[in-house]
C-alpha cells in the first residue's frame, strides 16, 4: 500500500504487537540526543528507500546530529517499536492513525512536528468543477469508514454536501443533510474510479488513479489543508510523550521542514501529490486529543 492510500485509510489497519524482527540488538528504551556516534537518533519509517531520506541524514549530520533511518515493511510496526524504545522517533502516519494506536494500546505517543498531507481527490468525467455539477446528481465515495469520512469532508469543502455538526473524521453518509446539493452513494473503494461513467463525480483513492488513467492533476477538488477538518490527516513525526520537548528531536523536525532537497524529494516520491505543511506542534497535539476523544466516545 502506498503512502498516499495509507494517508487516507489508516484507520482500517489492524494494530499488532511489535514483531521480533524489528528489534535491534543493543536498542534501549532510553532516548538519546544524537550526540554520540554509537547512539544515533533512530527514526522509524515505511519506505526508507525513498532518496530523500539519504538527503535528510546528510542534512542532520551537517547540523551535528547522527541519524539512523530504520525501515519497516508494515505500517503496524513503527508505533510499537517507538513505544518499546526500539526507536526515538517515527515518521510514517497521520494523526488519526496515531490516535487509533494510542486508544487501542493505552499508550501516549505524541506528534512533535508536521510533514505533509496527501490530498484525497474528487474526479469527474463529465464536469470540470464542482460548481458545474447539477443539483440532485449522484457522487460516489468509498464505503470504508475512514475513507468515507474524509471523502465526505472533501465534498463539503467543495460545496456539494452539508454534514451534520459540520462534519468530522467520523462522519458517514447518514450525516449528509437533506439540504445537500447532491446525493451520495457509498461504493467499494476499488470501484470509485470505474463508477465515473455512471455518476457525476467520484472521490478516488490515489492507489486507483493509474488503472483509471487518471492523475492527481485531474482532480476537480481535493482536501483543503487550511480546513480544520483536514488537520487529522496531516502526517507527523511522533515521539514518546516524555520526549516531546527534546530539543534535538525538535531540531530534526526543523531540518526536515527546511531542507529543500528533502522537501523536493518528498514531493517527487508522492508523484507530486504531497502538500508540505508546517503546522504548529500545539495544533497537532490538540487535534490528536480531539480524535482520541472521538474514538473513545464511539467505543462507548
Provide a descriptive summary of the structure in words.
The strands form 3 sheets. Strands 2-1-3-11-4 form a 5-stranded mixed β-sheet. The chain has a 5-stranded mixed β-sheet with strand order 8-7-9-6-10, covered by helices on one side. The two termini are 31 Å apart. The radius of gyration is 20 Å and the shape is globular. It has 8 helices and 12 strands. It has helices at residues 3-9, 52-62, 78-83, 95-105, 145-157, 247-258, 260-269, 281-299, and strands spanning 41-45, 67-71, 89-94, 110-114, 116-117, 121-123, 138-142, 183-187, 201-204, 221-222, 235-239, 275-276. Residues 1-31 have low confidence and may be disordered. The chain has 300 residues and is α/β, with parallel strands linked by helices. Helix 2 packs antiparallel against helix 7 (260-269) and helix 4 (95-105) crosses helix 8. Helix 2 (52-62) links the parallel strand 1 (41-45) and strand 2.
Give me some keywords for this one.
300 residues, alpha/beta, five-stranded mixed β-sheet, 8 helices, globular, disordered N terminus
Number of strands: 12
- Rounded mean pLDDT is 88
Low-confidence stretches: 1-31
Quickly give the structural class: alpha/beta
How many helices does DSSP assign?
A: 8
* Strand/helix succession: HEHEHEHEEEEHEEEEHHEH
Oligomer: single chain
Q: First CA to last CA: what distance?
A: 31 Å
Strands of the widest sheet, in order across it, are: 2-1-3-11-4
Proportion in helices: 25-40%
Strand-residue proportion = 15-25%
Tell me about the largest β-sheet.
5 strands, mixed
Global Rg = 20 Å
